[in-house]
Every structure is written in C-alpha cells, then in structure tokens.
Hints:
Its main location: membrane. By secondary structure, this protein is of the alpha/beta class. Helices cover 52% and strands 13% of the residues.
Amino acid sequence: MMTLLALTWVGLVCAAVPALLYLQNAFLFRAPPVIDNTVPLTPISILIPARNEELGIEACVRSVLASQYIELEVIVLDDASTDRTAEIVRAIATTDARVRVEAAPPLLDGWSGKQHACFVLSKLASFDTLTFLDADVRLSPDALARMSLFLRANGADLVSGFPKQETGTLLEKLLIPLINWLLLCFLPLWGMRHFRWPAFGAGCGQWFMTTRAAYEKVGGHAAVKTSFHDGLTLPRAYRKAGFWTDVCDATDLAACRMYRSASGVWFGLAKNAREGMAATGQIGFWTVVLLCGQVLPVLLLVLVVATAACDVEFGYDPLGRAIERTTRPFVLTLLGAACLLSLLPRLHTAVRFRQSWLGWLIHPVAIVLLLAVQWYAVFRALAGKPVAWKGRTHPANLTSREAK
Length: 404
C-alpha cells in the first residue's frame, strides 16, 4: 500500500506542475493585435520552400495573395520537386506579378533541405521583413498584417505563429494536437519574454516572421543548417546571438494540415525527435514526466477502483488490510485530482484550438504513442539509420554523394 501511495504522489506532482504552468500560459499565449490603420506597415517578402507540395501549394499562395493592408511579394523555391509544384505556381504567377517561382540550387553538403531552401530564399527577397511559410499553410486576409504588428509591438526580432492544426487520420487526431499542449504545459512563456536564455526559445516552423537585419546578424538559416527542427533551433540561434523571440496563437489567422497519413505523422514527428524530446539527455526526463503525470494516474485509478469493486485486498495481515481500508479513500482522492490535472489542460486545448475531442478522450494513449515515436527515433539513430524525410537523410549522416 505504501508503494501505491508513493506512486500516487509522484503522479499528482507530475500532473500538477504542467497543469499550473498551462494555467499561466493560457493567459499569455495570445493572438497578434488587431489591425490599427494608423500604424504604417512595412512591406513583407513571403518566402515559401516547396518540395513536392502540389496538394497544398496553390491554396497557400492564393491565401497569401488575398492578404489585406500590406504590400508583399511571394517567392516560391521549387526544391527539386518531382510533381506539379513548380507548374502550379508558374500558372499563378502569370496572373499576378507579385508571385515568382525560382529553382533551388543543388543542396550543399552539411545542409538539410528546408534550411538550405530558406537561406536561398532570403537572398532573393526584396523587402526588409521576411516571412518563412510552409507550403501547406493557408493564411487569413489579415494574418500577415497582424503578425507584422506583433513583430513590432513586443520588440522581438523573430516571431512565430502556431496555426490551427487540421487533422484527418486517427494518428493525426491523437498526436498533432499535442503540439499546442506541449508548448503551454512545458514552456514558461513568462520566462521566455523576460530572459534571453536559449532554453526558452521555441516556435512553430510552419510560420516565422523576422527582420532582415536580425536574420543576417544571426546568420539566418545557416546557423541551423543541419537541423530538421527549425521550430526549436532557429529561435534558440536568435537567442544565442542576443535577440528576442516570441510566439503567438495563430488559430484564427492560419490553418495547416501537416501530414495526410498515419505514416506521414509517424515519420514526420520522428524526423524532428532527435532535436527535441528524443535528444541525448532529454528522452529519459520526458519519458518519466509524461508517463508519471499523464498515464500513471489513470492506470492507478483504474486499478484502485477495480480492486475496491472486487473487494480485493493487498495483503493477508489484518493490520495491513485495516490500513488499506482507511487509506483507500485518500488515495482515490489524490488519484482523482491527478487525473483532473492531467486531463483538464488537454480538454482546454481541444476547445480553444478547435481540435478533435478524440485526443482528449484517450489522452493517455496519445502520450504513449508520442513517446513511442520518440524512442523509435532514438533506436533508429543508435542503429545508424536515422529517420529520413522526403528522400533526404539528416545532414549529420550524409555522405557527399547522398547529399546530391
């Protein structure tokens, strides 16, 4: 019984800490300011790296072209696509002079594809405000203007918006919504806005906006050229260089469907894992914290309720049985509190960010699957077969021939 009580306290603490941080962050994670027509807005270069993006590139570009209040140019870099990506953008460019498509130069040794494409795009941009946008993101008409105001208003040099994450398959519904949940449960936004520590750096690689001056001082995407996970590495590079970064809630400004299949979700998350939760020295921490806080309370609650219902005792000693009977209500109370602290933040994310409720209903299962993806990435790396993406292996494992 003492072991059960100890595990109960561990589960309660591991659920309570992220829940309390979530409560604070929920007030700090806000949408960008509304448009103020009295404030002049600087022109923006929208830079879109695209590799085999025919399913979403047209919607992405047309949504950008529908932007209001702002002068813009759209540059799409066709990164050796084998589908109709370039053809689709060229067709749009014939009807709108603000759009152009460029062919990516050969991928350089030691670079990941996206970082290389973004760096090349930055050299093609005409304006001093740069927006890096994934090709599967669609913006609302006021999105760019409001993000520009956010960049200016809070003094940050790099800002990132978290779009509404659209999901279709079961694995998408379970895992993709955890992006917002992890951000608000484990990143102290107050600390991010008061300290430049790189550890506080975070963002969403789907949508970044920055000033050209800061970008060039940091070294741009060359500073994170080997990364598959610029959502973490680019903000941290800015902070290491002495700049501020910030994030905002772009649920009403942008939408994105990251992956369109279960395999896409699995390998897409796994490719980033080694630079995030599955990094050396972190995977053990995340495994313990997430299992103890998000899975253990539910398992223990089911166990205690089931044994009580079946009148199963944990020992044959009369004194031990008496202790169990008197302690069980207390343990049930603690476990109930732990489960609420675990599930309420997840419920709030489902409502606030308009996500599938399935992920909340079986939240512990989603956590187990998330950790499975992380450990899969770890074992692949240990076996010398790291997860590739769109036909490209992580640069740290490339030979010169493979890079081409």
